[in-house]
């Protein structure tokens, strides 16, 4: 949609009424509130309902497009002064432009709920559609206004309604790169796999075309099928390759097994499963038991046995504690609904799935379907998130696991260098207590069992040592730096930019307090032991990372130029 500055009429400018109408229209486009007020005071009998510009924009359309609620109230006061019949006012409010838009469409695009409610008081039609079948939710999606989407959803409108070309609000949000709208719509139930009628494009195709990797990732997490072809036979990845979007291509390929295993860049299949948990348990502790039964009876030095047993015991204890401990799930104590949260907070700070205002350093885990305090990552090996309440335990678990694997390698080396007492016939493995496993040549059986166990140890060492070293390096560096894996390697930006925006609206006392906290924080960053203590022990008690910090949050308004409006002709 191009800028609607047009002449009010093609009639001669010598007509006094036309001149007055054109002047009033120009004042509204320029948002000259005082001049509009003075003009209407001088023309108290002026019929403003009938005034339209060349694109059939009424004065109400122009005021709503410019998001000027005070001007809208002024216009309503004028028509009430003229004692215009209620039916005529309703028709004025629901009048359509040459493209079929009502004033409510424009207000929805701006996300001004107060103005939306004002129009509803005068019987604005929330079900109105334009000539392309675009509803107010379509327009809210194009304006990246989750608050409008949530409001009209609370009124019973379908968030997954298609327009005449089969494009849902999610299609439009993805095509225009509107991250907030896309995230909220897919969470509220919009299907990511419905193709439009004209081109067979799914929201994933359109997100790729827009070049927005965050929307692509969100859709994949929510189950978007990357194998659907459009009517030209192209997959989303084909469009990414054509447009040279390398980061999106990597997302759609999702073949980085090592980083996925380390959970630095986790897989996008967000189906929580205990398979990895039980696989780790049986592999690790099964291998430990195999060594105890097959090798321990032949280790001459008791210190080795005691050290290995202690490591296995510690690993088991911290494995259980990492798995069973609440990592820091954040709950909404006030049970506020999503709309109320959006009315008072910036959409970036609101989690649409948990219906909470996310504290600093928190993140929503798609596996656990919960927001986690001081979120580090979701670890499939413990089937749990790593957060403020179990981060230290998880680090101990990974460290002991690494040293246990190193001990297994040491046993294998000892075997192959003949440092175990293989010829000690006084000590027999536990197999002698199970006659059905005995061979005629028991010594040969013992030797084969020890050989197999040591080979398995070598395989485990070669398979898991490098990933474990990398994982431990990442985690220990996190503790020293006072950061999380998500903050260092996460796909989405942290809260820092949004928090800086929020600070701009604080009072001077709050600002000075924040500066003091920031200065203190910078000093603490230089002390690695302070960071370690915070990450392991204190973050779970820090009020900054709990929900109560945001009980009186500040909404950051999206700055939209007065004549911003969506382009409806590109899809």
Topology, pairings included?
Blueprint: H1 16-29, H2 33-42, H3 59-65, H4 69-81, H5 86-93, H6 103-110, H7 113-121, H8 136-142, H9 146-154, H10 169-175, H11 179-187, H12 203-210, H13 213-221, H14 236-242, H15 246-253, H16 257-262, H17 275-294, H18 302-324, H19 338-344, E1 350-351, E2 356-357, E3 363-365, E4 370-372, E5 377-379, E6 384-386, H20 391-416, H21 442-481, H22 485-489, H23 496-503, H24 508-525, H25 528-538
Antiparallel strand pairs: 1-2, 3-4, 5-6
Helix pairs in contact: 2-4, 3-4, 3-6, 6-7, 6-8, 8-9, 8-10, 9-19, 10-11, 10-12, 11-13, 12-13, 12-14, 13-15, 14-15, 17-21, 18-20, 20-21, 21-25
Mean pLDDT metric: 82
Helical stretch count? 25
Total count of strands: 6
Q: Point out poorly predicted stretches.
A: 1-13, 421-434, 493-511, 549-571
| Helix vs. strand class | mainly alpha
Approximate strand percentage: under 5%
Oligomer: single chain
Main sheet makeup: 2 strands, antiparallel
Estimated radius of gyration: 32 Å
Distance N terminus to C terminus?
Answer: 13 Å
Order of strands, widest sheet: 1-2
| Fraction of residues in H or I helices | 40-55%
Inertia-based shape: elongated
Q: What's the short story on this structure?
A:
This protein has 25 helices and six strands. By secondary structure, it is an all-alpha fold.
Q: Any key phrases for this structure?
A:
elongated, mainly alpha, two-stranded antiparallel ribbon, 6 strands, disordered C terminus, Serine Threonine Protein Phosphatase 5, Tetratricopeptide repeat, 571 residues, disordered N terminus
């Amino acid at each position: 949609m191009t800028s609607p500055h047009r002449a009010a009429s093609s009639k001669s400018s010598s007509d006094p009424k036309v001149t007055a109408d054109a002047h009033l229209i120009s004042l509204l486009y320029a948002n000259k509130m005082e001049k509009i007020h003075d003009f209407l005071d001088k023309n108290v009998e002026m019929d403003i309902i009938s005034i339209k510009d060349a694109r059939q924009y009424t004065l109400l359309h122009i005021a709503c497009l410019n998001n000027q609620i005070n001007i809208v109230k002024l216009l309503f006061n004028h028509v009430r002064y003229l004692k215009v019949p209620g039916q005529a006012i309703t028709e004025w409010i629901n009048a359509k432009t040459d493209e079929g838009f009502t004033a409510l469409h424009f207000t929805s695009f701006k996300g001004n709920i107060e103005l939306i409610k004002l129009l509803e008081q005068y019987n604005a039609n929330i079900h109105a559609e334009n000539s392309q079948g675009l509803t107010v939710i379509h327009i809210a999606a194009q304006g990246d206004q989750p608050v409008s989407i949530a409001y009209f959803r609370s009124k019973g409108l379908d968030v997954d309604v298609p327009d005449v070309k089969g494009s849902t609000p999610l299609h439009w949000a993805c095509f225009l790169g509107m991250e907030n709208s896309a995230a909220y719509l897919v969470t509220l139930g919009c299907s990511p796999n419905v193709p439009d009628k004209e081109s067979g494009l799914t929201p994933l195709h359109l997100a790729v075309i827009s070049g927005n990797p965050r929307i692509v990732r969100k859709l994949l997490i929510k189950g978007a099928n990357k194998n659907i072809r459009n009517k030209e036979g192209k997959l989303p990845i084909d469009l990414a390759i054509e447009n040279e979007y390398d980061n999106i291509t990597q997302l759609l390929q999702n073949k980085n097994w090592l980083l996925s295993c380390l959970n630095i860049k986790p897989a996008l299949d967000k189906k929580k499963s205990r398979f990895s948990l039980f696989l780790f348990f049986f592999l690790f502790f099964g291998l430990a038991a195999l060594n105890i039964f097959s090798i321990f009876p032949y280790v001459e030095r008791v210190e080795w046995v005691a050290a290995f047993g202690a490591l296995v015991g510690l690993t088991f204890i911290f494995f259980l504690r990492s798995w069973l401990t609440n990592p820091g799930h954040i709950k909404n104590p006030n049970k506020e609904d999503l709309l109320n949260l959006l009315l008072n907070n910036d959409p970036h700070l609101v989690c649409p799935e948990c219906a909470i205002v996310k504290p600093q350093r928190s993140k929503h885990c798609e596996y656990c379907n919960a927001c986690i305090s001081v979120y580090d990552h979701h670890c499939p090996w413990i089937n749990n998130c790593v957060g403020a309440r179990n981060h230290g335990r998880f680090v101990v678990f990974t460290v002991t696991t690494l040293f246990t694997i190193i001990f297994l390698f040491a046993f294998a080396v000892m075997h192959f260098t003949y440092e175990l007492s293989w010829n000690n016939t006084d000590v027999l493995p536990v197999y002698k207590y199970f006659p059905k496993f005995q061979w005629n040549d028991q010594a040969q059986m013992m030797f084969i069992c020890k050989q197999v166990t040591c080979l398995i140890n070598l395989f485990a060492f070669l398979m898991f040592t490098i990933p474990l070293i990398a994982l431990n390096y990442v985690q220990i560096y996190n503790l020293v730096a006072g950061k999380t894996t998500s903050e260092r390697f996460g796909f989405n930006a942290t809260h820092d930019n949004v928090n800086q925006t929020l600070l701009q609206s604080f009072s001077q006392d709050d600002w000075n307090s924040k500066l003091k906290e920031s200065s203190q924080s910078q000093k603490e960053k230089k002390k690695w032991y302070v960071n370690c203590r915070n990450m392991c022990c204190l973050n779970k008690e820090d009020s900054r990372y709990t929900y109560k910090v945001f009980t009186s949050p500040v909404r950051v308004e999206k700055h939209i130029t007065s004549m911003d409006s969506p382009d409806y002709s590109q899809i």
